[in-house]
């Protein structure tokens, strides 16, 4: 099959046919790094991969859950200490684990779920917010 002139020109210029990401690594700015770090560790079970300090002060922490990496950074207050975080934004974490068990662990650790585990669109999912109000969906694919 012959390529069109437009396709040939795009390839010559180094353009790609489509975006193909292999991972996403969100970075969230939080009001209290200590509180958020403890929440992600104790409520959802993230591991603390690495901490970042500047002049002896904790500034950020890298978290890991399986192959997913995430960074939490201390808000420096430059945009105001009361600014709303996470509005119109949600992170979806997909797991092979039992969603009901993860939700039960989160509740036992003090989390209030926005939505209890339910089946929707071929997934088992629950919703929760972190201490700064960032919305999280925790899901697993349902067997066919």
Provide a descriptive summary of the structure in words.
By secondary structure, the protein is α/β, with parallel strands linked by helices. 21% of the residues lie in helices and 38% in strands. It has three helices and eight strands, in the order αβαββββαβββ. The strands form two sheets. It has a four-stranded mixed beta sheet with strand order 1-4-3-2, with helices on one face. A hairpin with a 5-residue loop joins strand 7 and strand 8. The protein is globular, with a radius of gyration of 20 Å.
Provide the spatial order of strands within the biggest beta sheet: 1-4-3-2
Class of secondary structure makeup: alpha/beta
> Helical percent range?
10-25%
- Global shape: globular
Report the end-to-end length measured between terminal Cα atoms: 37 Å
Instruction: Round the Cα radius of gyration to an integer and report it.
Output: 20 Å
Largest β-sheet summary: 4 strands, mixed
Please trace the helix and strand order, writing H or E for each element.
HEHEEEEHEEE
| Average pLDDT level | 87
In DSSP terms (H or I, runs of 4 or more residues), the helix count works out at 3
Give the total of beta strands: 8
Beta-strand content bin: 35-45%
Low-confidence stretches: none
Question: Topology of this structure?
Answer:
Layout: H1 5-12, E1 27-30, H2 33-44, E2 47-54, E3 57-65, E4 68-74, E5 90-94, H3 99-108, E6 113-120, E7 123-129, E8 135-141
Parallel strand pairs: 1-4, 5-8
Antiparallel strand pairs: 2-3, 3-4, 6-7, 7-8
């Amino acid at each position: 099959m012959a390529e069109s002139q437009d396709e040939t020109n795009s390839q010559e210029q180094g353009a790609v046919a489509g975006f193909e990401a292999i991972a996403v690594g969100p970075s969230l700015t939080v009001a209290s790094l200590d509180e958020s770090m403890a929440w992600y560790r104790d409520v959802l079970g993230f591991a603390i991969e690495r901490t970042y300090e500047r002049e002896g002060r904790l500034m950020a922490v890298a978290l890991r859950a399986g192959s997913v990496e995430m960074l939490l950074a201390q808000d420096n207050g430059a945009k105001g200490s009361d600014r709303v975080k996470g509005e119109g934004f949600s992170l979806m974490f997909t797991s092979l684990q039992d969603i009901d068990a993860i939700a039960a662990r989160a509740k036992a650790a003090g989390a209030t779920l926005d939505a209890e585990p339910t089946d929707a669109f071929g997934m088992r999912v629950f919703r929760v917010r972190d201490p700064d109000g960032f919305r999280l969906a925790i899901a697993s694919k349902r067997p066919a």
